[in-house]
Write a structure and sequence with these properties.
It is an enzyme of class 1 (oxidoreductase). The chain has 304 residues and is α/β, with parallel strands linked by helices. The chain has one domain: Alpha-Beta Barrel (TIM Barrel), CATH 3.20.20. Helices cover 50% and strands 13% of the residues. The chain has twelve helices and eight strands. It has an eight-stranded parallel β-barrel, surrounded by seven helices. Strand 1, helix 4 and strand 2 form a beta-alpha-beta unit.
């Protein structure tokens, strides 16, 4: 039953018609638990609340259904405006983005030009931009563009997914760049030809790449709500004398709030991934696919 629900949510997340319907009805059906709002102001207010209890953030203007150069440019504009809002408000946040929202599927040149515009603005403010990793079909081109951008910018990082077979080699290759990486398990449905199908294998590979990247001396964002992974990381850095300035824990907005606050109390850096925007549906469906038990929020809100 759980696998059936997971597959259903993943399929819905890729549906254009479902996305259009979601836009029409707004942040209903429980999505407001995971999405900070549809406007920049709402997102800044959410980050301000997090900052008050010691959590920092990364803001993500959601957008996954970009089919024209004009839409890609508008998405890049929103990223720049988000950086402006972070700077003017004084909140502690950097920026996360998906390169498909910047036109990657339309033109690599268009995407790279949009990325450079965003990174230049971020550099003016002394801010940092994280490239979210998407599905396997976009993995290699994302890494290629990241390497190209690093030739000009040092304020950009990328995400690496533990469930892919290629990940260990990618970690080794990126070490030469002293890459700032967010390490995640992975949330897309992938073929067993390219990804570990069993959770236990994903978990073991996740632990391995956390160790690798930390041992290489590079900044590591461990993005997980799995208490076993968090405790593993805490023990590993303690036993190996790794400074708390070299890593942070990252969690999603609206998930494991008490764990986030407890980690802050223990003196760890905690960054919350705060998504906002009108194109929230695909993101919301992936959160439900990761943990189908969250679907009861959808059902509860349908009858309000």
């Amino acid at each position: 039953m759980e696998m059936m629900l997971r597959n259903m949510f993943q399929s819905l997340g890729k549906s254009r018609s479902a996305n259009r319907l979601a836009k029409k009805y707004g942040l209903r059906f429980g999505a407001a638990r995971f999405v900070a709002g549809e406007t920049i102001k709402q997102s800044i207010d959410a980050v301000s609340g997090l900052n008050k209890d010691g959590r920092i953030a990364t803001l993500d203007h959601l957008g996954e259904f970009v089919f024209s150069e004009e839409e890609a440019t508008l998405s890049a504009d929103m990223c720049v405006q988000t950086l402006d809002a972070i700077a003017s408000s004084g909140v502690q946040s950097n920026l996360s983005l998906k390169m498909t929202s910047l036109g990657l599927d339309i033109s690599r040149e268009l995407c790279v030009n949009n990325m450079k515009r965003i990174l230049n603005r971020a550099r003016q403010y002394g801010n940092f931009v994280r490239i979210d990793m998407e599905d396997y079909a976009h993995c290699q081109v994302s890494l290629d563009i990241y390497r190209e951008l690093r030739e000009e910018f040092d304020n950009v990082g990328i995400v690496i997914q533990a469930y892919l077979f290629r990940t260990e080699q990618d970690i080794q290759d990126l070490s030469a760049l002293s890459a700032n990486l967010r390490l995640v398990k992975g949330a897309y449905k992938e073929s067993p030809q390219v990804a570990f199908p069993e959770k236990k294998d994903v978990d073991e590979n996740y632990k391995k790449i956390i160790q690798m990247h930390l041992k290489n001396g590079h900044y590591t964002a461990v993005a997980s709500h799995d208490e076993a992974i968090i405790n593993f990381t805490k023990q590993f850095v303690s036993e190996n004398g790794i400074s708390r300035d070299q890593f942070e824990f990252q969690m999603l907005y609206g998930i494991c709030e008490e764990m986030q606050k407890q980690l802050v109390k223990e003196g760890y850096r905690v960054r919350v991934y705060v998504p906002y925007g009108v194109d929230w549906f695909g993101y919301f469906m992936r959160r439900l696919a990761e943990r189908p038990a969250n679907a009861w929020f959808v059902l509860k809100n349908m009858f309000k």
